[in-house]
Design a protein that fits this description.
The chain has about 800 residues and is of the alpha/beta class. Helix 4 (about 70-100) packs antiparallel against helix 5 (about 105-125) and helix 10 (about 225-235) packs across helix 13.
Length: about 800
């Protein structure tokens, strides 16, 4: 509950250090005075961490508050933080617009003094606070000590379904051996089982895949309206060729078409994390019962939902008389339910007992995370449950929100690794080389995460609208569904820092909604409109002076105007992946805080010389037009680490080959050729001067005529090499002796004419992963490959019959992780 206050304390230190705006000594003084009082209160609140955790839990459980004094003080602190941020933002905005402090606003000075009086009063109240009942406090401490942190999961078996083989067998029996009638199998738990992982193991088992004709996992959150849920289900279940036929059909016709498609199929539909019986009503109306053993598998989040079910004798299920072993056979609206539960499902009314349950335990532990990790963890609640979160986007958002003290992606990655090691987050996919590419919140952690984030007034989620949930002190809004929801969550007094929009549809943004964003949300730091399509460059965006993170979808945008670049000087991330920019104003070179630049393609201006320096913070560009690879431009990007170049590489052969070496910090380089005369490549890789700092290198559509290996094998730090589609049009690859000393990953994709691949002694001594997909004429792989003891993953797609047979007969294929696709070994 004190997260926003502690973040505000850190922000004041950044303001005084000149990170957000340069202040005169006179302007700093009232902020310095305010900061001194805030830091005192912050230090005192650390002594009340358990009390605040207990207070938060009482709010979540809707218990009577044991300590109204602490509740009152925390409410005052939250209101103070919200209003203080607004004063500071107004002050910085006025300075930014005026370009000087000569008109130092007396009203703002008076407001800062009033805030100092209020924090002094709060400080006095904190001094008078007493700790909550020691017995309850001991309970919180014991839960934290006994539970520890949940172990990280690195494989399908290294997670909290280990030791539950009997329960898995029971679940499979319910799915396969049950009645012929369409039935629901529900997984319910009260002792911390990761229901999502448990369900996924059954869903991916060979028994289930063999028994059912059709399997589908419907992502949450679910729309409760049957018409909306039907749209989601049809998109996932029906083949693509049928979607266009039902696009304009009404509800009844869509249901008929879905029923006809599933009529001859035994299907399994999974709905993970079901919160409301309304979902059951909707799904029951949509799905046909073919009397062939089809199933719906759900995981229940709220234990109270089982009170909607009935025993065979017609009596409603009572939580206080349910036995401790399952499965439990009940019904809902005449629909057979088979409940597999783990532990007792009786409700605990006493807080001392409630904190021992999974929600209580997770709440306590998440409240007790180190402060650096706490806002990073709670921020994961902004992403939909089914979404694999891009770590690159996540790090940029954390930095924009002020959660990372040094604004470093390396630090952000360390924070994520700590959350993974504590068992709150799963690393879903890793990039070639080992860094995390996508992640997700663990299934059993998400209910506690959402609850804590909302009750602590950290975020307001559009799909959890409730009259009792106030958004008065909330600075972050996430919209999951219709874009019109903007209007309902914004008012004249809104002081929002973040607005994020997640949807799978590419709707067009209503100009009225855009007007609301610009007029009422002038203090935004994060604006991510996701897939919402803007017809043209939005007027008014240049007035959002405090923006640090901006993501827009404007396919028609060809020019980055000076008004955008000259006003949004606080931007760290500018992300417009569907825009192809032909012209960028000179003011680009004034954006010295810019770190991350992502476009379909962007052409940068020559450096204007006066009044502009180098962009020392810029570390990521995708995708730069090759005409910009001049000494004048690349020489002023001294800390660029990730670069993707896209365009006619043949035409700019000399410019590229001589200038890339100037990027002495470059680690990752991707070259994507879009030649105007394909198949007539003039790219001569031997003339390229690559920086020795390169660790990742990728080629696409380059149609190299000469063998690239003699040039690339000399790069001393290269760990990942990807030769993608049509990157090399020759027939032979030769890796010399002792070449590629640090290479871990090699991808060779769609090298359509490759026939022969040879390796010298000692080449690629650290290779771990090899992917060939496909090389249609390649008949053998080098024998030296089997001398590389580190090789543990070798995926070969569509191999020639001769190569496939040799790999089938290779006796050590398991040791080297050899897998053939799509036929298997």
């Amino acid at each position: 509950m004190d997260i926003s206050f502690r973040l505000f304390s850190e922000r004041l230190r950044r303001v005084l250090a000149g990170e957000e705006v340069m202040l005169s000594d006179a302007a700093k003084q009232p902020i310095h005075n305010l900061n001194a009082e805030v830091e005192i209160v912050t230090s005192w609140l650390r002594e009340f961490e358990y009390d605040i955790s207990c207070l938060l839990f009482q709010k979540i459980a809707e218990e009577e508050i044991d300590d109204p004094d602490l509740a009152t003080v925390m409410h005052k602190i939250n209101c103070f933080t919200y209003e203080s941020e607004k004063v500071i933002d107004t002050y910085i905005n006025s300075i930014t617009q005026q370009k000087s402090q000569s008109r130092y606003n007396k009203d703002i000075c008076d407001a800062l003094q009033r805030l100092q009086s209020r924090i002094t009063e709060i400080k006095q109240r904190v001094q008078q606070l007493k700790h909550i009942d020691p017995e309850i406090m001991d309970n919180f401490r014991s839960v934290e000590a006994e539970s520890g942190y949940f172990p990280a999961s690195s494989s399908s078996k290294n997670r909290n379904t280990v030791g539950l083989d009997d329960r898995m067998e029971e679940l499979l029996d319910l799915l396969i051996e049950g009645p012929t009638q369409l039935s629901v199998v529900a997984i319910l738990d009260s002792i911390g089982l990761d229901k999502t992982a448990f369900t996924a193991e059954a869903y991916n088992s060979s028994y289930v895949k063999h028994y059912f004709d059709y399997l589908a996992w419907i992502p949450a959150p679910y729309q409760y309206d049957p018409d909306q849920l039907l749209d989601v289900v049809t998109v996932i279940l029906l083949p693509f060729s049928m979607l266009s036929k039902i696009k304009d059909k009404d509800y009844e016709m869509k249901k008929v078409i879905l029923g006809e498609y599933l009529m001859t199929k035994r299907y399994l539909i999974v709905l993970d994390d079901v919160w409301s019986a309304d979902v059951l009503d909707a799904i029951q109306e949509i799905l046909p019962d073919n009397q062939n053993g089809s199933r719906v598998l759900i995981t229940l989040t709220l234990i109270e939902m089982v009170t909607s079910f009935q025993f065979e004798n017609g009596e409603n299920v009572r939580l206080d008389i349910v036995p401790t072993r399952g499965p439990l056979r009940v019904s809902y609206q005449g629909w057979p339910f088979l409940i597999l539960y783990h532990g007792s499902i009786s409700l605990e009314q006493n807080i001392e007992e409630a904190i021992e349950g999974p929600m209580g335990r997770l709440t306590v532990i998440s409240c007790k995370l180190p402060f650096r990790l706490k806002p990073c963890f709670l921020y994961l609640s902004v992403f939909p449950a089914h979404l694999e979160i891009s770590t690159r986007q996540l790090y940029q958002l954390w930095i924009a929100e002020g959660f990372i003290p040094d604004n470093s992606e390396a630090t952000a990655e360390k924070y994520l690794e700590q959350l993974i090691n504590r068992g709150f987050v799963d690393a879903r996919r890793r990039r070639a080389g080992g860094t995390i590419n996508t992640c997700s919140v663990r299934g059993r952690c998400r209910p506690a995460l959402l609850t804590v984030a909302i009750e602590a007034e950290f975020i307001f989620l559009s799909f959890m609208v409730s009259e009792r949930k106030s958004k008065k002190n909330v600075k972050r809004i996430n919209v999951f569904d219709k874009q019109s929801d903007f209007v309902h969550f914004v008012d004249d007094d809104s002081h929002m820092h973040s607005l994020l929009y997640f949807t799978s549809k590419s709707d067009h943004l209503d100009p009225i909604d855009w007007g609301i964003i610009c007029l009422m949300l002038e203090f935004l730091r994060v604006l991510d409109l996701g897939s919402l399509v803007l017809i043209q460059y939005p007027s008014g965006i240049e007035n959002l002076f405090l923006l640090r993170y901006l993501k827009l979808n404007i396919p028609s945008l060809k020019i980055l105007p000076s008004s955008l670049l000259s006003n949004l000087l606080n931007l760290y991330t500018l992300d417009m992946p569907f825009s192809y920019i032909d012209h960028t104003a000179d003011e680009f070179w004034k954006m010295n805080k810019l770190r991350h630049l992502n476009f379909g393609s962007i052409t940068l201006p020559a450096h204007p010389g006066k009044y502009c320096g180098s962009l020392e913070n810029l570390n990521f560009i995708s995708a730069l037009h090759p005409c910009c690879c001049t000494e004048d431009i690349l020489g002023r990007l001294p800390n660029l680490r990730n670069l993707r170049i896209r365009g006619d590489l043949s035409y700019y052969q000399f410019l590229l080959s001589q200038s890339i070496c100037r990027l002495s910090c470059l680690e990752s380089l991707k070259l994507v050729n879009e030649s105007k005369m394909p198949r007539i490549s003039k790219i001569i890789l031997a003339e390229y001067l690559f920086p020795h700092s390169l660790t990742h290198l990728s080629f696409s559509n380059t149609d190299l005529m000469d063998d690239p290996m003699p040039t690339l094998e000399k790069l001393p730090l290269l760990q990942v090499l990807k030769l993608k589609q049509n990157s090399y049009s020759g027939r032979k690859l030769t890796c010399g002796s002792d070449g590629f000393p640090r290479l871990n990953v090699l991808h060779m994709k769609s090298m359509l004419w490759l026939e022969e691949w040879t390796m010298g002694t000692g080449a690629m001594p650290k290779l771990e992963c090899l992917l060939i997909n496909p090389c249609a004429y390649l008949k053998r792989v080098p024998e030296q490959l089997w001398c590389i003891k580190s090789l543990n993953k070798f995926d070969c797609w569509w191999p020639q019959p001769e190569l496939r047979q040799k790999l089938r007969e290779f006796k050590d294929k398991e040791q080297y992780g050899v897998q053939l696709y799509p036929y298997g070994i």
